[in-house]
Amino acid sequence: MTEPIQNGQTRVTPAGATDGATHDSAAVRAWLSGLQTQIADTLGAFDGTPFATDTWQREPGEKLRGGGCTRILEGGQFFERAGIGFSDVSGDALPPSATAARPELNGRGFEAMGVSLVLHPRNPYCPTVHMNVRMLLATKAGEAPVFWFGGGMDLTPYYGFEEDAQHFHRVCRDALTPFGSDLYPRFKRWCDEYFFLKHRNEARGVGGIFFDDYAEGGFEQAFAMLKSVGEGFLKAYLPIIEKRRAAPYGEAEREFQAYRRGRYVEFNLVWDRGTHFGLQSGGRTESILMSMPPSASWRYDWQPQPGTPEARLYTDFLPVRDWI
């Protein structure tokens, strides 16, 4: 049974931990909201265009309860589309995407809170990036709640640069190392396996880190790891776009960017658990699909010409490799 204790905490049994551990939803919620503001303010200043704010609340009687805030920038000077969403919602039953690997949680209610972002620069030499940090709490009357953290970040270039991929992975590794030398190789492998278009036999990008169902060491330790990942995002991404933002490009590069964006759409709609969770649970469609690029294209059985920068993306960057 859930037992209130001091400072707004709740006594719970997290996945893989012993009874008597605690979680603090208020602390997670405050940190997530602050992280969204910090990233939106920093990237808005970088673009020269402030992010618009769309605060929303679920209506009474809807499938989900709660609300959130979407920070969105469209048609900016640098970002063609950039969305940073914070949500804190609850429901009466976990959707199938959340219990596929943990059938013992079937039938539980839930609270899910997190920050998720996808940034689509206009310049094809600047990569798309995704980051997500979240906490999920599974509840059942008469039983202790179960909490876990999930998230990560990954980089999707259109034109690859080894030093950019190396930098991105180095920051990811450094964010995780204080919590165990095994985490980066573990979470990198998980990312490589997760962000993979099985129907294409092709990676989405150069990876990064991904984790789910994480509660190792109890709440304080696991939350500290999540914070390190979230606070490492700007360190990982900002130096890359600062370096590439002025690179000249033409229509051919934009066409290839649109073609590769099509792969991004395919992954998000076909394979992404976050998209499935949101849609299956009755989430807010505009917020769920803000990750989509503003434009994308498909070509029938197209292949890049050998020896071109476009071909090098396939030969040198999409195959799984160690970047550091």
Automatic annotation (TrEMBL):
A GO BP annotation: protoporphyrinogen IX biosynthetic process
Listed InterPro entries: Coprogen_oxidase_aer (IPR001260), Coprogen_oxidase_aer_sf (IPR036406), Coprogen_oxidase_CS (IPR018375)
Catalytic residues identified in the record: H130
CC cofactor: a divalent metal cation
Binding site for a divalent metal cation: H120, H130, H169, H199
Stretches the record annotates as Disordered: 1-21
Polar residues biased stretches: 1-12
Pathway: Porphyrin-containing compound metabolism; protoporphyrin-IX biosynthesis; protoporphyrinogen-IX from coproporphyrinogen-III (O2 route): step 1/1
UniProt superkingdom: Bacteria
Catalytic activity: coproporphyrinogen III + O2 + 2 H(+) = protoporphyrinogen IX + 2 CO2 + 2 H2O
Binding site for substrate: S116, N132, V133, R134, G282, G283, R284
Entry GO MF terms: coproporphyrinogen oxidase activity; metal ion binding; protein homodimerization activity
Site (Important for dimerization): H199
Transmembrane feature ranges: none
Compartment(s): Cytoplasm
Any one Pfam family match given in the protein's UniProt record, by short name: Coprogen_oxidas
Function: Involved in the heme biosynthesis. Catalyzes the aerobic oxidative decarboxylation of propionate groups of rings A and B of coproporphyrinogen-III to yield the vinyl groups in protoporphyrinogen-IX.
Subunit structure: Homodimer.
NCBIfam families per record: PRK05330.1 (NF003727)
Family statement drawn from the similarity comment of this UniProt entry: Belongs to the aerobic coproporphyrinogen-III oxidase family.
Name of this chain's protein: Oxygen-dependent coproporphyrinogen-III oxidase
Protein's organism: Paraburkholderia silviterrae
Lineage, broadest ranks: Bacteria, Pseudomonadati, Pseudomonadota, Betaproteobacteria, Burkholderiales
